[in-house]
Amino acid sequence: MSEFVSLKPKMESGSIDGLPIPCIVTPKLDGEFQVLLYRSGEAAMVNRWGRTRDVPALRDLEGSLGKRGIVDAMMLAELHAMENGRPMRLPDLLHRRVADPESLKLAIFDLVKVDGKDPPGDYVWKMEEIGAWMNGSKRIYPIPYKVCATRIEILTLYNQYIATGYEGIVARAQGKMFKVKPIRSVDCVLTGINKRDRLKHNQITSLKLAVMDERGRYIDLGDVASGIDLQLRNYLTKLLDFKVGEDQDTIYIRPFIVLEVEYQETFEAEKPVREFVDGRFVNVGKVDYFSLRSPRLKRFRPDKKATPNDVPSSQLLEEENGKRKAVHRLQYLDNYNNNITAY
To answer: What angle is formed at CA 179 by the lines to CA 133 and CA 155, rounded to 5 degrees?
Structure first.
């Protein structure tokens, strides 16, 4: 299994301004990473956890490589699906994988081995070779790519891919891979200090965040540590003056400070919900909501207050058919009174 985990490319997060020039740019799919294995007429795919799957697209791979006289090959690909001309998000893809495997596609983004040898050419050669092998298949094909010599070219491609539903772009240059995704932000209320190792040295390195629903309850959004520099770590110890309770992992504080936090994307998760009653937090259940991927503290918002109007849970948006819509699917526990925990 470790062999397949190691094959998944390691990418650095970057910005268009920071990318090396020239570079090779491809779209970034929200798919499932797969290692494609072909030997003597039979093809299989294995994900990063070592789980094998069989999809109809592999039949195209078998037919194409068999006609070329290739004995064995190893390639890397993203399993994905399209809907109305746009790539589906991973949670929807996982459902489609079971319900309609015929619609699943494989976008090959690298050639690792062919007939037991390393490919003789560079990345462009590999993509052209794969394109010739697949011979126009609609279910398995090389990922689109372009060699960009200017940042204007990169920005143009980036905007095109974002507009058509891709996550962003991947750039290859100087033996490295870089991913560039949109940066979004959310206003949230600070509800606690996470008990990390540096706390014993009077340094706060991680904060607990929440947004508020229409009832004024606090939906846990997760933690943020990135963006807290050394100077801020020391200054944040003043928050301890507003302590209202604690548990094993967190010191809870009075919810009155609003922060703006940047993030790259959201993923669905079950989140705790709390009320702030009589100067303390009370656990009132859990909801299906979101967590933030790659959160980073951007700034404090003294112009905003910890109210449902200023830090609403409806800020987090979900892509659906190319349009953004507010998500507010909050289902509280029916046995509310049996799930009270005060901090």
So the answer is: 90
**Chosen domain end from 146, 180, 214:** 180
Report the relative pairing of strands 140-142 and 105-114 from DSSP bridges.
parallel
CA distance 51 to 315: 36
d(CA 233, CA 205) in angstroms, rounded, equals: 6
| DSSP secondary structure letter of residue 240 | G
Evaluated on CA atoms 269, 272, 275, 281, the torsion sign reads negative
φ, ψ (nearest 5 deg) of residue 210:
-150, 160
The residue among 194, 309, 301, 207 whose CA lies nearest residue 256 is: 301
DSSP string, 33-63: EEEEEEETTEEEEE-TTS-EE--THHHHHHH
- Tokens (6 digits) for 105: 């596609």
- For the stretch 221-242, pLDDT in tens is 999 999 999 999 999 999 999 9
pTM: 0.67
Q: 33-42, 188-197, 249-258, 331-340: lowest mean pLDDT where?
A: 331-340
Tell me the β-bridge partners of 146: 25
Q: Which residues contact 320 (CB under 8 A, 6 or more apart)?
A: none
- Provide the edge-to-edge strand list for the sheet that holds 105-114: 52-53, 42-46, 32-39, 72-80, 105-114, 140-142
CATH number at residue 104: 3.30.470.30
Tokens in use for 169?
């772009």
User: Distances from the Cα of 284 to the Cαs of 73, 188, 204, 274, 330, in angstroms?
Assistant: 54, 19, 27, 5, 12
Mean pLDDT of the chain: 88
Same domain, yes or no: 190 and 176: no
